[in-house]
Each structure stands twice: as C-alpha cells, then as structure tokens.
Design brief:
Layout: H1 3-6, H2 9-58, E1 59-62, E2 65-68, H3 72-78, E3 86-91, E4 97-100, E5 119-125, E6 128-140, E7 145-155, H4 157-204, H5 221-271, H6 275-305, E8 312-315, H7 316-334, E9 337-342, E10 347-350, H8 352-370, E11 375-383, E12 386-393, H9 400-403, H10 423-433, E13 437-442, E14 448-455
Parallel strand pairs: 9-11
Antiparallel strand pairs: 1-2, 3-4, 3-7, 5-6, 6-7, 8-10, 11-12, 12-14, 13-14
Helix pairs in contact: 2-4, 5-6, 6-10, 7-8, 8-10
C-alpha cells in the first residue's frame, strides 16, 4: 500500500482545514504589515509637512537677505531622539547650504517646484533610508528675485517600528484565535470521526459465524448510510453462508445413502459368479449411479436458484413451447401425451436459464408420476395482471395432506425410483427469485396442477 493510501482521513481533514487557515494568517500578516507601513508613512508625511512649514516660517526675508529666527531650543527639539534621526537644511539658492545639521540631497531629477508647496520623496543618508519634505520659497526686494529651499528629513526607522508594533498588536490576538480554532477543529474532527471508529471496532470484534447487523444509534447520516450498506452486505453474506451450509448438509445427507448402496452392490458384484446375478447387480449399480447423478444435478440446481439473479425480459410463451418440444421424446417413451396451450407471446422479467429449469422440473415430475396413458399439458396465460405458467396432468394426483408438503425439500409422496424430493423445491425457489409464487392444486376429477405465478413485464 502506498503512503498516500495510508494517509488517514483525520490527517487529511486536519491538513485541508488548518493549512488554509495558516496561509490566510500569513497573507493577513503580510497585508497588515503593508497597511501599517502605509499608515505610518502617512503619519510621517503629515509630520514632515508640518515641520517643513514651521521651519520655513522661521526664515524671514529682510531686504535682499534672510533673517533666520531658529532658536536653539527648537533645534534641540528636532534632534532630541537619536534613534529617530531628523535632518534639516535651508539652502539659497536651492542646493547651496545655508543652515542645517546635514546636507540633504534634492529630489531626482531636481525639477522646478512651485512656491509654498511641499514635495515628499525618499533618500539615503549615511546608509539609512529617510523620508524628505522639501519646499521652495521666493524672496527679494522687487528688483532681485531669489529662491530659498527648506528641507526636513526624517528616518524611516520609526515608520518600521510603528508598522511592526501594529502588526504585532493585530497578529498576536489572531495567532491566539488561530490556536484556539485549531484546537476546536481538531476536537470537531475527532468527535466527527468517532462514529467511524466505533464502526471499525464493531467490525473488528464481530464473529464471522454470527454476522449480526451493526447497531449505530447515535451517528451522522453519512455513517448511518455506511452502516446500512454494511448491514445489507452482512445480510447477503449471512444468507450465502447459510445457503452454503444447508447445501453441504443436504448433499452430505442425500448422497450418503446412494453411495453406500453403490459400494454395497459393487462389492457383491465382485463376489458374484453367476452371470445372470452379476447382470442384476450391475443393473442396480447403474440405477443407483443414475439416481446419484440426478441428485447431484438437482442439488446444484437448488444451489443456483438460491443465488441472486438478474432479471431481464423473457418471452415465456416461446420458452414454454421450446421446453415442451425438448421433453416430447421422453413423454412418448413414457406413454404420456404432452401438449402446449396458451399465449403466442408473453413477456415477464426473469432469468431464462432458471425458468427453463423450473419448467423442466415440472414436466419431469408430471411424466414421472402421472403414469402411462395420462395427459400432461403445459399452459401459459394471463390472469389478474399476472403470468401463470402451469403444468397440469390427469394422473392419480395427491391428497390434501400431501398437497401441503409438496414443496418441502426431500419430501416424496411416492416411492417410485428415480426421484429425490427436490424438483418442486427448486420450482418454489425459482418462483421466489422471480418475485412470484408456486402453488399446487388438485385437478378434478383427478390429477395435479403446479403453477408459477409471475409478475408481467412493466
């Protein structure tokens, strides 16, 4: 068995339920981090815009020059957090360092920017990424116009720290919820598969001899369906085993006597000196062998009728005429008038081989016991919405007491040689397999009629 076939249902359910949860959790973490970065960047941009405008207000035009009113306290405030580095620069003309704590590169490419409109971009200072707000201003005395650029840069370390904190604050509760959900999923799967485990335990400890039905009082509908299917299988198997056991018992019981007789006659024949007496012994051996062969054939037919059969449309009228023709030579040899009456065509759902076997048994039984000079009629007709297959004879018939036992196995009303008491039992089994019945009634003034009553083809 491959590794994939050994992969348990519980593991498959856990993988298919928890793996998507893990993937969604990771995707949620990435998405949350990106959203946190975007919000942190927006916060930094607002802070930089406010800072660059404030710094621009501290630089005031004075004639053709500039008055920079930037107290030391304000400078200390901007540089107070070493980890959150803040750089600023005032240049006039733009790019020519005038004031600040470091030189900040201009936006690339260095395009002309309208006055009093901050522009935001990113640069790398001393190997660290920074966000820059830049704003250009115009000043002068009306004769000579000059331009000034104010730049404030802020490290992105704070942005990343804020993003990490946001992600941590969001994902940690989600991780706890995911762990709780995983436990609940596992427990749900365990409880959901518990009926299957109970079903497995019942099957593992079930005795082969009993094959009793499986009882599932509290289980999901799907497990009930599985249990019902298994119960149907167990019922079929129990019936098959019972039929097999009954067949073996019947065969052992019925073959014991003729085989013992054959052995006895054979031993006597080997000791016989008189040719005429030897001929009589051999005749008895031949008769016993024929009876044993007939018994084996009947037992095998009985076993075949007890199996499940597939029903197909069969024209029983045509089949009855064929069977009657096949038995005509035997009827002539027995001095019996065998004929057919009934429909030209009549279709029923059935198994052609079994129906032929049933009709043959009925004719064989009639020819054997009706007696020389009697009439036997094979008849097909429709009555009360059903098909009737009948074999009628005008022989001695049976008493009312014997009619009740005519379909019992190994029961014989006559001690005439050749029979084994299984022919009419086979007929009853065949009728049952075709969802029909077999009945026997006395024919007036004397005789016997055996009938198949079968449903018509819908």
């Amino acid at each position: 068995m491959s590794a994939a076939a050994r992969f348990s249902l519980k593991r498959q359910l856990l993988v298919w339920l928890l793996l998507p949860q893990l993937v969604l959790w990771l995707m949620g973490g990435v998405l949350a981090f990106r959203v946190a970065l975007a919000y942190a960047e927006k916060t930094i941009d607002q802070s930089l815009t406010q800072s660059v405008r404030s710094l621009a207000r501290q630089v005031k035009p004075l004639g053709s020059g500039l008055l920079i009113d930037f107290p030391r306290a304000a400078q200390d405030i901007m540089e107070q957090d070493p980890s959150d580095r803040v750089a600023y620069m005032v240049s006039s003309p733009p790019g020519s360092f005038l004031l600040g704590n470091t030189k900040i590169p201009a936006m690339q490419p260095d395009l002309y920017m309208p006055d009093n409109e901050p522009r935001l971009y990113e640069v790398v200072l001393d190997g660290k990424p920074m966000r820059v707000a830049s704003m250009d201003l115009s000043f002068g005395d009306g004769f000579t116009d000059q331009r000034m650029r104010v730049q404030v840069a802020k490290s992105l370390v704070v942005q990343q720290r804020i993003a990490r904190e946001l992600v941590r604050d969001v994902l940690f509760p989600l991780l706890l919820l995911g762990a709780v959900l995983s436990v609940l999923v596992y427990e749900g799967i365990r409880r959901g598969l518990a009926p299957l485990e109970r079903l497995e335990a019942q099957l593992a400890h079930r005795a082969t001899a009993s094959l009793s039905p499986i009882e599932m009082t509290q289980a999901p509908e799907e497990v009930h369906s599985l249990a019902n299917a298994l119960n149907h299988l167990l019922t079929t198997l129990r019936r098959s085993l019972s039929q097999e056991k009954r067949f073996l018992n019947d065969a052992a019981h019925q073959l014991r006597t003729p085989l013992a007789g054959l052995i006895s006659q054979t031993e006597l024949a080997m000791q016989e000196k008189d040719p005429a007496a030897l001929q009589q012994r051999l005749t008895k051996v031949h008769t016993g062998a024929q009876r044993s062969a007939h018994l084996v054939h009947q037992l095998l037919s009985l076993a075949r009728t007890e199996a499940e059969v597939a029903l197909h449309p069969v024209d029983v009228a045509t089949l009855a005429r064929e069977v009657a023709r096949e038995w005509t030579p035997r009827a002539v040899a027995a001095g019996v008038d065998l004929g057919y009456e009934g429909e030209d065509a009549l279709t029923v759902p059935g198994d052609k081989l079994l129906l032929r076997e049933g009709l043959s048994n009925l004719i064989d039984n009639a020819l054997r016991y009706a007696g020389k000079g009697s009439n036997v009629t094979l008849r097909t007709q429709v009555r009360d919405g059903h098909c009737l297959l009948e074999v009628e004879d005008n022989g001695p018939g049976l008493s009312a007491e014997h009619l009740e036992r005519v379909f019992e196995r190994f029961w014989r009303a006559s001690e005439l040689p050749g029979g084994c008491g299984l022919g009419l039992s086979i007929v009853a089994e065949i009728a049952q397999r075709h969802r029909g019945t077999a009945t026997a009634r006395t024919t007036l003034p004397h005789g016997l009629t055996i009938s198949f009553r079968l449903p018509l083809q819908g």
